[in-house]
Amino acid sequence: MRDPENRELRSRERYWALALLVSWLAFCGLFVVSAALYPGGNWLDPAAPGHRFFANYVCDLTQPVSLSGVNNPFGSRLAQLAMLCFAIALAGFFWLLPRFFAPATRAALWVRALGECSVLSYLAVPLTPSERFGEVHAWLALLSAAFGFLAAFCAVWALCWSSKPARALGFVGALALTAGALHACLFVRYLHARAPAPLIVPAAQKVAALLLSAWMLGVAWLTLSSRQEPRDRG
């Protein structure tokens, strides 16, 4: 690759890394405000006051009427916007991941294609609250998770055969992948159960989200701090 092309690619990578960071920070800010505005209720205890970090699903905040039966028009809009910001961060993350793969790997195309399919299906999740759309909401979330799981699996495999910093990213990715798979299995297990899902199901979602966030921030930080010229991954 010629030097001008190198500089252009490096500039795009820095742009995506900054977009990832800004979008993730916007997600955090909007999530905190929407959680503070949430009237209350979770699937185990509809009468519980306020938001419970490990008891509420993230999507609970997007409901126009809380699980306690109280209208939540402003907070639900903020939560939907928060999830859209997270989708932008995910798009940047999946685009950047292949820069850390070994030159000979062919996983870049799969990671980007599957990852962006995950983002596109994820965009519909906050816009289809279960109160209005029923199980459509749950199946869209599972579809997004399936694409994301495949993209993450390919990425972890490729990272484990790359440089030392890349292997560290692969380790964090493997933890996020494991937590996400656990949550998906539990979610499907209790999707049609008569009793509400136990606390471990929403708690596993939050643990998976925290690990995924750590993976995303690691990719952004290494991209912004790296002085090495990028290779063309095709």
Give structural notes:
The chain has 234 residues and is mostly helical. It has one domain. The protein contains seven helices and no strands. It has helices at residues 3-37, 73-96, 107-123, 130-133, 135-160, 164-189, 200-225. Helix 2 (73-96) crosses helix 7.
Q: Structural class from helices and strands?
A: mainly alpha
> Which term fits the overall shape?
globular
* Spatial separation of the terminal alpha carbons: 11 Å
Helical fraction = 55-70%
Oligomer: single chain
Features:
single chain; 234 residues; mainly alpha; 7 helices; globular; disordered C terminus
How is this fold's topology laid out?
Blueprint: H1 3-37, H2 73-96, H3 107-123, H4 130-133, H5 135-160, H6 164-189, H7 200-225
Helix pairs in contact: 1-2, 1-7, 2-3, 2-7, 3-5, 5-6, 6-7
